[in-house]
Amino acid sequence: MLMRTDPFREIDRLAEHLLGTNSRPAVMHMDAYRDGDYFYAAFDLPGVDPDSIDCTVERNVLTVRAQRRRPTGDNVELVAAERPMGTFSRQLFLSDTLDTDRLEAGYDNGVLTLRIPVAERAKPRRVAIATGGNGHRQIDA
């Protein structure tokens, strides 16, 4: 059997009340970064069934939804319930400089990772500049 003594449990309950509940979790933690020609977003979703993850892009809005459920059954007896359950959702507003048509997603070890290429029009390119003479010079734009 599980014994629990926690003098700060009431503070935790107050925080859950203000920030979120088991039925309405408050946070889906995320890291976002750019590496070369790709933008990455990594979402922590431990214990989530990959079939419950839904990722959509509409215009410049990326929406990620996932669901974590408690085990159910006739013989299941809940002894402690501390992990947030329910539907998690997060929206990101993406720049026009990302090519969302080529977005890739993978789920591994409880982390959903999205890889979005930077659009060709947003990559640095060389531009020819005319000078007063008859020559041209290349510079980075």
Protein described:
- The protein has one helix spanning 9-19; strands spanning 30-35, 38-44, 54-58, 61-68, 86-93, 104-108, 111-117, 126-130, 136-140.
- The model has no long low-confidence stretch (mean pLDDT 81).
- The radius of gyration is 23 Å and the shape is elongated.
- It has a domain at 24-72 and 82-121: Immunoglobulin-like (Sandwich), CATH 2.60.40.
- The chain has one helix and nine strands; from the N terminus they run H-E-E-E-E-E-E-E-E-E.
- It has a four-stranded antiparallel sheet with strand order 1-2-7-6, with no helix packed on it. The chain has a three-stranded antiparallel sheet with strand order 3-4-5, with no helix packed on it. Strands 8-9 form a two-stranded antiparallel ribbon.
- The longest helix is centred in the N-terminal third of the chain and has 11 residues, at 9-19.
- The chain is mostly beta strands.
- 8% of the residues lie in helices and 40% in strands.
- A hairpin with a 5-residue loop joins strand 8 (126-130) and strand 9.
- InterPro entries: A-crystallin/Hsp20_dom, HSP20-like_chaperone, Small_HSP.
Q: Helix fraction?
A: under 10%
Enter the CATH topology name of the domain at 24-72 and 82-121: Immunoglobulin-like
What is the CATH top level name of the domain at 24-72 and 82-121? Mainly Beta
- Taking pLDDT < 50 over at least 5 consecutive residues as the criterion, the unreliable ranges are none
Q: Count of DSSP E strands? A: 9
Mean pLDDT: 81
Structural class: mainly beta
Q: Can you write the helix and strand succession as a string?
A: HEEEEEEEEE
- Rg, Cα atoms, Å: 23 Å
Distance between the termini: 67 Å
Strand content: 35-45%
